[in-house]
UniProtKB/TrEMBL annotation:
InterPro entries named in the record: Chloro_Bact_Ser_Proteases, Kre9/Knh1-like_N, Peptidase_S1_PA, Peptidase_S1C
Highest rank taxon of the organism: Bacteria
GO molecular function ontology, one term from the record: serine-type endopeptidase activity
Signal peptide location: none
UniProt domain Yeast cell wall synthesis Kre9/Knh1-like N-terminal: residue ranges: 27-101
Annotated source species: Candidatus Kuenenbacteria bacterium CG08_land_8_20_14_0_20_37_23
A GO BP annotation: proteolysis
Xref: Gene3D superfamilies: 2.40.10.120
Listed name of the protein: Yeast cell wall synthesis Kre9/Knh1-like N-terminal domain-containing protein
Keyword line: Hydrolase, Protease, Signal
Pfam families in UniProt: Kre9_KNH, Trypsin_2
Ranges where the record places region Disordered: 774-806
Length: 868
């Protein structure tokens, strides 16, 4: 996009001038208690401030604006603003955040030192009451039927990442869960399609303890219009064995009356990790959004969605929902069970949907469980480890991040590891540019500056210690290049540096472990989603597939560290769908003018250097809209960043190619721009890049060679170690990448039941000596080595029940085949030509292929037909 990146002021000192803005928030500053509808007087002191932006924060990463562009008198030394707390705000803890601007000079921010509290007033003057004793519930074990649902997805780096948490109700002894559509569903920003997601289910065993997250679930049904979903619980082998679940009955007859007692159960964010139970009354009913809703003064909040509203006899009368912004705040709203009964009856017996991420989540959940009792965290790739203090805790909430702290100490220090993937082997020169890129993508680079930067070495690992400032708040990090990753260790010593010694000791245990996993750069990309496109990168570029329909690919320049290219897909909007190229270029210029009205307060200006509404990229694409722009300081005229954007229009989406260059070096920018234009000669709006040299349909296929290699993995030794699989069914080869592997294999795999699968031996190198999947006291590796099945627990009264009864005929028929274990979470297996099976997971993907693959030359590879 044009003019995306804001400036980074790289300073080694924090000296200020007499015109620099100064601001100090006076109130609310923590500890105050307000109610919805109250008028709050926000006050501050100021110097050199002509405009302020005021917002409120309900969490560290949340910010909602109250006033975004409020002019104030620059001659005043104090300021104030009267804010009426809106009806839609939920009860909870909040901070005020205020930013002051001195136009063309700079900005400064401050926030409340501590939380203030907003309460919501109850109807009928009956206050909501919290319940912590099960005997006070209308059904004593009702809380055991309320689950926390953690929704995971694959992030841009293909890490399993936690997207959201919500609640659900177990409504059958077999483990059917009723929840909300919005709790379990992620939609693509580009086209609103449903993204792949997977669900960790946490069931409470005691009312005061964190629920046990030892379960997964599959989707049975979902309906966006009703905001309803049904899931089916599955146990994780080795972690859970529960078969009969505590459940709640549904009240199908709409018996709730105004004034009736109601109990709300769920997992709101403000309630912490344990279940939150509040008691109130039914305050009324309303028909809205095509449904009946029950209003209650029992407190609900974000995270409560999918939870239960119970009547006095312990039946579910409603499903809590926070899906609509006008149903938040003073009252809790629950979807009346009677309005979704017919939908539930039609869908409750559906077959649970296959989930390709399930085995990935199972492996990750077991890692989380193991870390509960471990002091050392070891990651296989990037190959790193770190050791915590014995009284601190690991929180491995997403594969891309690990936090270490003492949960019992809110004022203590913390450490967080972040794993940032690159498409090439990283070095020290990538570190500063990565921080600038991250802050630029967040849109806060203008508030960011380097305070200090120094080289460090820990356990022989070279890296940098970086101190940065964002809106006056100081952040500390160590950053190390590891293989094709940057490992960022963010840290804080706690209040008054109370944990400095402990934090430093933990950081000094950071190590890089030996790894035999090779890394190969990618230099071509093909987008199978709409808009379809493909290209070849030049020698100085490396391609990184991005798990997003909106931004499917990044291309990084390996020498010019401040240069990278994004390939983006954007919707055609109502405003732009009927525009010709000239109109669209004018529209872009208008957007830039609007941006400049805002960023001038930061002494910034976006300037279009040149443009062309009918730019020729190559012989196929000769009608692109080109805009070259710079960000510069208004006062000094210094160029801060440069960019060039090509927009290629289609009926439903635009393909936007953006070069971003975070430097003022014009000569280097021109060189990079020239290299980009050379790369774009291969850009094609189709499945294969132009001029790829790939085999055409007229190339001769060697049937004898193909037949010998059916079912084999092939390592393309002359082209960066690319991996191919020859489908035994049709003899065609399919490239296997980290991005497409599991979806590809699910398409090519044969379904197999457990009875037949368990008649094939497991390869000993496919399992771990650190894992006991069936919980029988024997490691998976020891069982596989002795010919036993690590998924079947050994029975002490009937020895040998888990011995593999190998079927030689079946094994021989399935050599070289991919198998889909339909009865166990759609796990994927590959049977090698020694007749041993290997499980294929996200964790072992590329390492597994390189162990099994045969090397092949380009000449021989081109004699095998290519699959779609």
């Amino acid at each position: 996009m044009v003019c995306v990146f804001f400036t980074a002021n790289i300073n080694s000192t924090s000296a200020t001038s007499s015109e620099d803005p100064v601001l100090d928030l006076i109130s609310p500053n923590g500890g105050e208690v307000y109610a919805v509808g109250d008028e709050v007087n926000i006050t501050w002191t100021q110097t050199n401030i002509d405009t302020v932006a005021i917002g409120y924060k309900s969490c560290d990463s949340c910010l909602d604006w109250i006033e975004f562009n409020l002019p104030v008198d620059i001659n005043n030394t104090t300021g104030s603003y009267k804010w009426t707390i809106p009806e839609h705000l939920s009860a909870g803890n909040y901070k005020i955040n205020i930013t002051g601007y001195h136009t063309n000079i700079g900005s400064v921010s401050d926030k409340s030192l501590a939380d203030f509290i907003i309460n919501t007033s109850g109807h009928l003057n009956i206050p909501s009451v919290s319940i912590t004793d099960p005997s006070e519930l209308p059904k004593e074990d009702a809380y055991k039927a309320i689950v926390k649902i953690k929704t995971f997805f694959l992030d841009r780096y293909y890490n399993l990442s936690l997207n959201s948490e919500g609640s659900g109700i177990i409504i059958s002894p077999e483990g059917l869960i009723l929840s909300n559509y919005h709790v379990i569903t992620l939609e693509e920003e580009l086209d609103s399609s449903i993204r792949d997601a997977v669900y960790q289910i946490c069931i409470p065993e005691n009312i005061s303890d964190e629920p046990n997250c030892a379960y997964t679930a599959k989707v049975v049904a979902r309906d966006k219009a009703l905001d309803m979903a049904i899931l089916k619980i599955e146990n994780i082998t080795g972690l859970s064995t529960l078969r009969n679940f505590s459940y709640l009955d549904l009240d199908r007859f709409n018996t709730a009356q105004v004034g009736d007692e109601v109990v709300a159960l769920g997992y709101p964010v403000i309630g912490g990790e344990t279940i939150t139970i509040t008691k109130g009354v039914v305050s009324g009913e309303v028909d809205k959004y095509g449904q009946q809703w029950i209003k209650t003064d029992a407190v609900t909040s974000f995270g409560s969605s999918g939870g239960a509203a119970l009547n006095a006899v312990g039946k579910v009368i409603g499903i809590t929902s926070q899906a609509h912004s006008d149903l938040l705040g003073t009252l809790g709203y629950a979807i009346n069970i009677s309005s979704i009964g017919d939908w539930f009856d039609r869908n409750k017996n559906n077959v649970p949907q296959t989930n390709t991420l399930l085995s990935h989540l199972v492996a990750f959940t077991k890692e989380q469980k193991n870390l509960k009792s471990a002091n050392i965290f070891v990651k296989s790739y990037p190959p790193v480890s770190i050791t915590k203090m014995t009284d601190w805790d690991f929180d491995y909430y997403s594969e891309g991040r690990l936090s270490i702290d003492k949960k019992s100490d809110d004022d203590g220090g913390f450490i967080e590891l972040e794993f940032v993937r690159y498409p090439y082997l990283t070095g020290l020169n990538d570190i500063v540019q990565e921080l600038k890129r991250q802050y630029a993508e967040l849109g806060i680079l203008s508030m960011f500056s380097f305070v200090d930067e120094k080289s460090v070495t820990i356990n022989g690992i070279s890296g940098k210690k970086i101190v940065t400032s964002v809106s006056g708040e100081i952040f500390y990090a160590y950053i190390f290049p590891v293989k094709n990753y940057l490992v960022i260790i963010n840290y804080d010593y706690g209040e008054n540096d109370k944990d400095k010694e402990a934090v430093d000791r933990v950081i000094n245990t950071f190590k890089i472990d030996a790894s035999t996993i090779a890394f190969n750069e990618e230099r071509q990309f093909s987008n199978s989603n709409s808009p379809k496109f493909s290209f070849l990168a030049g020698q100085n570029w490396a391609v990184m597939a991005n798990n997003s329909k909106s931004v499917p690919a990044y291309v990084f320049h390996k020498d010019s560290k401040g240069a990278f290219v994004t390939f983006q897909a954007a919707r055609v909007t109502e405003d732009t769908k009927n525009m010709n190229n000239d109109d669209f270029l004018d529209y872009t210029k208008q957007q830039v003018a609007e941006i400049n009205k805002i960023i001038i307060r930061l002494d910034l200006k976006c300037e279009i250097v040149k443009s062309n509404a009918y730019y020729k990229i190559n012989n196929e694409i000769n009608n692109a809209i080109m805009v070259e722009s710079v960000f510069k300081s208004v006062s000094s005229g210094k160029i801060i960043s440069q960019s060039i954007s090509y927009t290629i229009k289609s009926e439903e989406q635009y393909l936007v190619v953006d070069l971003n260059f975070l430097s003022d070096n014009q000569t280097e920018f021109n060189t990079v721009k020239s290299e980009l234009n050379s790369m774009l000669q291969s850009l094609s709006l189709g499945a294969m890049p132009l001029n790829t040299g790939a085999p055409s349909i007229n190339d001769v296929v060697d049937n004898e060679l193909t037949n010998r290699l059916r079912g084999k993995f092939l390592l393309q030794v002359q082209d960066r170690g690319r991996i191919w699989y020859v489908n035994p069914n049709n003899g065609r080869r399919y490239e296997v990448t980290f991005a497409n592997a599991l979806n590809l294999f699910e398409t090519l795999a044969l379904g197999i039941n457990n009875t037949n699968l368990y008649q094939i031996l497991i390869h000993i190198d496919s399992v771990s000596s650190e894992v006991d999947s069936d919980g029988d006291g024997f490691s998976d590796k020891s069982e596989a080595g002795a010919g036993y099945n690590p998924d079947i627990a050994s029975n002490s009264s009937r020895r040998g029940n888990d011995k593999v009864n190998m079927d030689t005929s079946l094994t021989n028929r399935l050599k070289g085949r991919l198998l889909l274990q339909v009865a166990d979470r759609s796990r994927i297996w590959y049977v090698d030509f020694d007749g041993k099976r290997w499980e294929v997971t996200w964790k072992n993907l590329m390492d597994l292929f390189r162990k099994l693959a045969l090397g092949i030359t380009d000449n021989d590879l081109n004699k095998i037909d290519m699959g779609d």
